[in-house]
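Purpose: get a first structural picture of the assembly so the mutagenesis plan has something to point at.
Setup: two entries, given in the order below. No constraints added.
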Amino acid sequence: MKIFRWLGLAALALTVGSNAQAANIKIGVVLPFSGPNADLGHQIDKAFDLYVKMHAKDIAPHKVTIIKRDEGPPTGAVAKTVTTELITNDKVQLLTGYVFSPSAIALAPVINKAKVPMVIANAGTAWITNLSPYYVRLSFSMWHPAYPMGAYAHDKLGCKTAAVAYTDFPPGKDSVLAFKTGFEKAGGKVTLSIPMGPPTQVPDFTPFMQRIKDAHPDCLYGFIPSGAHATGLMKAYGEVGLKKAGVKLIGPMDLIPDNKLQDMGDAAIGTIVMGHYAADLDNAANKMFKAEWHKSYGAGSNPDFMSAAGWDTMHAIFDAIKKLNGNLSDPNKVVAALKGWSTNGPRGHVMIDPKTRDIVQDEHAMEVYRKPDGKLGERILGTTKAVHDECKILKVGRCK
Amino acid sequence: MSHVATIVVSILFDGLAYAMFLFITSVGLSVTMGLMGFVNLAHGAFAMCGGFFVVTLTRSLGVAFVPSLVIASVAVGVISVPFERYLYRRLYKSTDLEQVLLTIGLAFMSIATFTYFYGPIPKSVPLPDWLKGDVNLGFRAFPSYRAFLIVLGVALIAVLWYAFEKTNIGAKIRAAVDNRRMAESVGINVDLLFTLTFAVGSGLAALGGALAIQLFGLTPSFAVLYLVLFLIVVAVGGLGSLKGTLLAALVIGIIDTGGKYAFPVAGNLFIYAITVIVLLIKPAGFYGRE
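Result (structure tokens, whole complex):
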């Protein structure tokens, strides 16, 4: 036993000693690897791995060591435990991942105390970035797609009335509030609001859809976590005959994750989503990203909007390492290095707003259609350039 | 028909379809728990396994949906036998805790195994055209798949009721549930009987799991995700009672559906409220032995 301890000390001494030239930066990655939302974790994890594999040489002589932990269910409890462990036991210098908003919300006191920068790769509740000066978000706020969708639905899609239906947890409420704010500002009216149970379990969506069918709004704005819920909602939407009744399904892109779209069938055709990424997005970075993805993970695996954000997240982290020459000891400097960062990634041009530490990106209105080869695809109907998080601009609720 | 009556019929219809799914999936659990007092938390794993069998049969091997249901149920029923013979059997005399540890462990192992082969992305199955549309009853159109669930459920209830109440084996099972030692002493081979009911119960769970794909989508975590729901049905119905499981499935299915329609804000409150109220009044469930 003793000899191991000595070896450990020697190793530690070596790392510390060599710190000046070549740093080994420990990054904690916390993503859901188990449960019904495990595929969300894998979509981001694959993007992380791919970026690290392709760009490890860019930060030489420095190295990164990635330590992965399971985020668990969307309650925040497991995420808090494993993150605290990563900080205190593994001594990570930076944290990233975090699919679920409850995780990021629960972690704010820990991060504020430990002062470890956390680069959020998904969790989208708007006010999360206000909880800690060490939070930087590369993905989106619920308001990014939902707020412009409000005006778009009223002005372009002819929705005068809308029902909103959402999974009953912070990002769901946030998304619906953002849509409602934009929609009613444009002159529309939300006639029905239906919470559809917790995110931990896919419910039987039929009764909710029946209720909406009976209320007969022009449009249904839906929010569900992008995992197994998406398929369930689309099935119930088709089965209950809402589409036949003329209720148009609209929402953020979580409704039609690229890796589940083909399974959704005819019910999905005509669904209009607002989002910042589609597999068919036409830009050089996306073409390269997709080609590399297929090379590494096979033709059957497809990146989605979470993977695109994951790719940009690791890109931003690597750029910060380069900028700081591998010295991540001062968390304030790390956050400062990330502020104002911009790139042309798979999503197009993105930037981190230095004031809010949140992303600025283009939002596209996209319609699901059947492509000539028989598969389902998304075509872009219109683009809003450089969208900021409107929640923080309008200072709604906890976004103050 | 008036607006309110239409809504009530609609809730009853959707609730009935949901209840049939609950009944088919839970009945095996109820009988095995009643018969052996064995806490089988791997029941959901057999259901999930049935679902993935149907996915492979329909999507990779091109078998039609309905025959796949039959094949998957029989296959899972057969597969469950060695589990019962070589694993479960060792723990019949053990404490509840040991049984729970074994079976929840099996459930987690099954999740890992199926995730390895199928991945965590939800799967769906191609339905035949006659299950895709809806049945129009004049005042309202109902999804064909839900109608299919109800017809299948009613048919299964009839078969199970006949087997349970009118056949020799059914009489033996009832005798063994009521008083196992007495049944054994009059020469009933309870061990063999248990293997049989376990296989049938697991086969029905597999059928339930396969039918659930269209309702929830199928991921490996189905094995534990809906287990609480099945356990609630069993507890509210009373261990080992066919009638009880049916009544509990109907009550929970219909009230949950109605609650979601009328008071979506209440979430899962209705299911838990029913459970608490029923168990306060009848701690052993509707038809359980006190």
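Chain B touches chain A at residues 7, 10-11, 14, 18, 111, 115, 119-124, 134, 141, 143, 145-146, 214-217, 219, 221, 225-226, 256-258, 260-262, 264-265, 267-268 (CB under 8 Å).
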